[in-house]
Amino acid sequence: MSSTPPNPAAPVSTPAAAPAPRRPGTQYALVVQRTEQLTPHLLRVHFAGEGVAAWIAAADPDRLAATDTYAKVLFARREVGLTAPYDLEVLRETVPLEDLPSRRTYTIRDVDAAASTLAIDFVVHGDEGVAGPWAQAAQAGDAISASVPGGAFAPSDDVTLPRLLLGDDSAIPAIAAALEAMPAGAQGVAIIEVESAAEELELAHPEGIDLRWLHRAGAGDDGATATAGLPLVAAARALPAPTGPVEVFAHGERGAMKELRRLINGEWGVDRSLLSLSAYWALGRAEDAFQAEKREPIGQIFEG
Ligand SMILES: Cc1cc2nc3c(=O)[nH]c(=O)nc-3n(C[C@H](O)[C@H](O)[C@H](O)COP(=O)(O)OP(=O)(O)OC[C@H]3O[C@@H](n4cnc5c(N)ncnc54)[C@H](O)[C@@H]3O)c2cc1C
């Protein structure tokens, strides 16, 4: 993530005079300040407000220092009229099941502790789902609810270590942040799969990183989304096998990530300690089903 350091003196949005102790799962209201259309299908939403300040103050600085900082975010349908932050324990007692907020996972693309703002880049992938359509309709003053962040990856400072970054649109925020954080002398390849040339972005990156864009459109018979991951896997398979250690960051659609795990960890033998590889979403699955399947063989990337 690109960020300015957290400000320990940032105000905390506890409502009463006596601050309530923070418990796991504490939620913070992120209020939309403005939106910014980065490409036809990638929308940056800027959030501000007391809840953002409190979220930054409560976050573990190590998680904020990662380049793949992410948060579990709750989205409520506007017509239900709930006020963020959401207390799910209370809402489960008072609100019908179908009106409860839905949980989704998003990379925090940028944090500015001094301004108490943060940004999330949403893939707007159609009318299906919760978060994509929410972002598409977002207006200043709308709010979502987030818990404190996770995140573990940060590129090595070792300029002699080659890099390989692979991902689809959903991983653009994390890949962009990783490229920005790399030492100037870093060498390697970054391959990002998007629908078409219109989805390409200018990403700051070290000169020694060969940044390549792949397009799904035209890659298959039945439309762009059905081919998600195929161009990425084919491009990775066309790379020469590394002859030594390589730092890998690969995230995106689950089927593609399974193929990349077989190639990179299996065939190439890249050690897991150098490998950040996971599924960010799964074709045909809402996130609830995708998360639940992590407990079953179909949802597991490193087994099978
Ligand atoms: C750690 C982590 C970080 C992530 N960071 C980001 C991020 O910064 N930006 C981002 O946009 N996503 C990110 N994702 C992916 C995001 O959580 C999922 O795409 C999520 O499913 C979107 O929720 P939704 O409500 O829009 O769709 P869901 O209700 O979950 O799904 C509805 C339908 O849309 C399809 N779908 C979901 N996502 C996509 C997609 N990207 N492209 C095409 N079809 C899709 C599903 O297969 C399903 O058929 C991240 C995921 C993880 C685990």
Query: Topology as H/E string?
Result: EEEHHEHEEEHEEHEEHEHEH
Strand arrangement within the widest β-sheet reads 1-6-7-3-2-8-4-5
CATH level-4 homologous superfamily of the largest domain: Nucleotide-binding domain of ferredoxin-NADP reductase (FNR) module
Name of the level-1 CATH class of the largest domain: Alpha Beta
Task: Determine the number of helices (DSSP H or I, runs of at least 4 residues).
Answer: 8
Based on secondary structure, the structural category is alpha/beta
Return Rg in Å.
Answer: 20 Å
Q: Write down how many β-strands occur, each being a DSSP E stretch of 2 or more residues.
A: 13
Which geometry do the CA atoms define?
A: globular
Q: How far do the termini sit from each other?
A: 32 Å
The percent range for strand residues is 25-35%
Main sheet record: 8 strands, mixed
The average pLDDT is 91
CATH topology of the largest domain: Rossmann fold
**Name given to the CATH architecture of the largest domain:** 3-Layer(aba) Sandwich
Listed once per kind, the bound small molecules are:
flavin-adenine dinucleotide
- Helix content percent band: 10-25%
**What is the total domain count?**
2
